[in-house]
Amino acid sequence: MSNRQSKYLKGSRKHWYEIIDKPNLSPLPRHAYEYTDIKPVKVNIDYHVQYDGHFYSVPHHLVGERIDLHAKFNMIELYFRGILVANHADNIATA
């Protein structure tokens, strides 16, 4: 951090960092960011949804419904109206 005086503001970059930025910084999250591919899908008559060439089952009473599929690095999660209805461990990699 530069202690050199600014041409435009009174004080150094370090001075302004200490006054403005540092008090407003939040701690880093506990867990690393994990990309999630979210897609709306329709449940087929065989109570499966397709993602990336693979089929994943959901409860049979959701046939014909639109649900949200969340594909993570090694997990597929299926949500109906915001409620988790199924999850499947997988070794897919989302791109």
Explain briefly what this protein structure is.
By secondary structure, the protein is mainly beta.
Description:
The protein has 95 residues and is mainly β. It has two domains: 1-28, no CATH class; 37-89, no CATH class. It is 9% helix and 35% strand. The protein has one helix and six strands, in the order αββββββ. It has one helix at residues 13-21, and strands at residues 37-42, 48-51, 54-57, 66-71, 75-80, 83-89. A four-stranded antiparallel beta sheet has the order 1-4-5-6, with no helix packed on it. It has a two-stranded antiparallel sheet with strand order 2-3. A hairpin with a 2-residue loop joins strand 5 and strand 6 (83-89). The longest helix is centred in the first third of the chain and has 9 residues, at 13-21. It is rod-shaped.
Which geometry do the CA atoms define? rod-shaped
Got a strand count? 6
Query: Residue share in helices?
Result: under 10%
Q: What separation lies between the terminal Cα atoms?
A: 37 Å
SSE pattern: HEEEEEE
Secondary-structure map:
Layout: H1 13-21, E1 37-42, E2 48-51, E3 54-57, E4 66-71, E5 75-80, E6 83-89
Antiparallel strand pairs: 1-4, 2-3, 4-5, 5-6
How would you describe this structure in keywords?
95 residues, 2 domains, 4-stranded antiparallel β-sheet, 1 helix, 35% strand, rod-shaped
